[in-house]
Amino acid sequence: MASLFFPFLLLCLSLTSSVLSNQIYIVYMNPAHRPSVHPTAADWYTAELQSLSIDPSNRLLYSYKSAAHGFAVRLDQEHVSLLQDHRSVLQIVPDPVLSLHTTRTPSFLGLLPTSVPLQTVETASSDVIIGVLDTGVWPESPSFAAGNSLPPVPKRWRGACEAGVDFPPSLCNRKLIGARSFSRGFHAAGGTRPAGEYSSARDQDGHGTHTASTAAGLSVGNASLLGYATGTARGMATGARVAVYKVCWSSGCLGSDILAGIDAAVSDGVDVLSLSLGGGAAPYFRDTIAVGTFGAAEHGVFVSCSAGNSGPGASSVANSAPWITTVGAGTLDRDFPAYASLGSGEHLTGVSLYSGPSMGSKMVPIIYGSNKNNASKLCLAGTLDPVQVKGKIVLCDRGVNARVEKGAVVKAAGGAGMILANTAASGEELVADSHLLPAVAVGRKSGDVIRNYVIKNKNAKGVISFGGTVLGIRPSPVVAAFSSRGPNMVVPQILKPDLIGPGVNILAGWSGAAGPTGLVKDDRRTLFNIVSGTSMSCPHISGVAALLKAAHPDWSPAAIKSALMTTSYTSDNTNSPLLDAAGGQIANAYAYGSGYVDPQKALSPGLVYDLTTNDYIAFLCSLGYNSQHIQVITRRNEVSCANKLSDPGNLNYPSFSVVFGKKRVVKYTREVTNVGPAGSVYGVKVSGPDFVGVTVKPTKLVFKRAGQKAKYSVTFISKNKANVTNDAFGWISWVNSQQTVRSPVAYSWKISRTLD
Length: 756
Hints:
- The protein is α/β, with parallel strands linked by helices.
- The protein contains 20 helices and 38 strands.
- Strands 8-11-7-13-14-15-26 form a 7-stranded parallel beta sheet, sandwiched between helices.
């Protein structure tokens, strides 16, 4: 799996356009049609397949019951036609292939052990179970070495620690309480495991161990990646339990396996689901993740998914369903500086996690491209001439192949070091890697300086040096350039991502079967690794959600999401607006949603925007989906759209996305619930562009008791629509002396439509 993950390190699981095989399908069934003679849905599915001369013993992969009504099956084309005409079949979709999106964090987020409220919550979180769908787990990691430090496993837990290759059930404990693997879809699609990949929940890749330990790993002292980021590594919710569902394999992650993992996790009794994987811009009834997580949310499970790593392009965000908490990525105040010193006297700063012997102080020749084609400038495999490269620093353009692979190519050709230079596509975004040779990554501006120097000087020379770990970086945080952006292509009236969290250079547990680069030739082994991506920010939010669930066990998933969103912040540690690493400009809500997560404030948000399953059904009805499409998502025998929303933006969401299009006036209604003290009074505060009028009624909300609800309406008026070409942003906040409950507002004048 390592060879798959690292070329897509900045991609966290994004839907690809192809499938491994068009013979595997997910079939959604109408539960109202199940005859009483069949005691279970699985019995019914088997009988229906047999009636069509489809042998379930050879072709049926999964029967779903908790997260979806249906099954995964291997079909010939004539079978597809038979099922499409079956009166009980709601929808048949090809099994999609997905691929991985890919210490300091707790203190940066304010999760300090000296905080009395958080100490109490950490203790209570031992009753919260986080399910992680990923590449499995390395159970021997010290992040999961609970022993008897935690109370007994909650009695309501219904999961299992499945026996498999190099994974006896005895490896589970009071921290790692469950481990399952799902590969039927992968195998049926023709996927083959390479040598070293385990036919069990054991993680050969490292990605799953990293995400699971980020969410809820135990505190481990003196942790580091080969000396970098030394300190105490710990997850967000150290007391929470972890259940792992391995759904990703060397050739990708099949939708049928992922849906089976969600189904099992819900049945097992998890409270939080963490999926560092995602789909593309597809209607929700065609999105396997959206369908499965709707069922999870209805069972009271909080679902956190990565936004994707396709930024900074607009409308690149994944996992846009409103019942999912969609997480983008930002930086920490920690960096790993490295330097490229040139013969011209220039001293340029970049980043690196190289930990081997240094180059010393003597400058060596720099080469940029060992032949006339551009492939050598990208340092692609087989493009460097060892005669020209030996003993020199090679300047490599970023892009096409993995960053660490470029270093391996340079080393194999005999290079002494590598300068990895960003192009316009990556801008100034820097991601540190544990290269196999002395290497430094620099931004586009520095890269242009070096390129210009090398091109104009036949005797160009330089040397690379390293600065270790540096804390207190300013400004921090910054939105990661790779983090996927809004607006939401599926439903433009729902603002996505919801918020951002730490996702750049994150230290967490790692697999004992993979080196830090994930390359086959990397024989180094480390208990912890530093990785970047929205894959990393997602489990941060999952862990924080577990803390909120422990503090407020009666809160719904929507209430927890609301608390996280309305208390997030948008100012960095210089008290300036958050910046976007893509271009250094001020970021906006399409990049960070509601802002950067603040766990301390989220514990006491004052007001929450709550949602029920019926609210989501009314929302789905407003999208123009037919009854069968809505049944696929909601698993209902019948669906009534009598209470459908007048506009998708009228969903009681903690943020606003106002799409004027041809309209000049848009009106939305919201309802908030008081989760603060009785007698709370809030006044409204509005900010935004002067060419949009905003009227909120009433302007004051009075709550006589805790749990009381209050509604308000907002009317947005575009004053000069014809002259507006760009999107704009603002805020609606409910404020008193103790609380600020803040919602971002995005304005668009584009003509938009939901995907169908």
